[in-house]
Amino acid sequence: MSEEKKHHHLFHHKKDKDDEPVDHKKEEKHHKHKEHIGQVTAVAAGAYAMHEKHKAKKDPEHAHEHKKKEEIAAAIAVGSAGYALHEKHEKKDAKKEAKKEAKEAKHHK
């Protein structure tokens, strides 16, 4: 029975693309775009956190609720900044690979 049972995963595995050449410029552009998304999200979440902090001061009756929202927004801002930094490193790696591949192609001619 266990041999017949197929596992369904949340994420489907892509087919092996080892045979296809990698377009490093396209990959670099993709990571740059994701980096910018992370940066914008970090700024927006930080601004929202500051807005909620201001509301907590102005509305003492609901200050606890505003403080919770502020903390959540601050955590999202930190996470987004980390994601942007991660994508910056991925972009840097893609750029290095492109240079390395270009150097090898030049060397083999």
Q: Quick gist of this model?
A:
This protein has 109 residues and is mainly α. The protein has helices spanning 24-58, 63-108.
**Measured on Cα atoms, how large is the radius of gyration?**
22 Å
Instruction: Please give the oligomerization state of what you see.
Output: single chain
Q: Given the structure, what is the number of helices?
A: 2
SSE run: HH
* Percent range for β-strand residues: under 5%
Q: Count every beta strand, where a strand is a DSSP E run of 2 or more residues.
A: 0
Helix content: over 70%
> What structural class do helix, strand and pairing data support?
mainly alpha
Question: Quick one: overall form?
Answer: elongated
Distance between the termini: 56 Å
Overall mean pLDDT score?
A: 86
Poorly predicted residue ranges: none
Q: Outline the biggest β-sheet.
A: none
Detailed description of the structure:
The protein is mainly α and 109 residues long. The protein is 74% helix and 0% strand. It contains 2 helices and no strands. Helix 1 (24-58) runs antiparallel to helix 2. The longest helix has 46 residues, at 63-108. The chain is elongated and about 75 Å long. The protein starts with 23 loop residues before the first helix and ends with a helix.
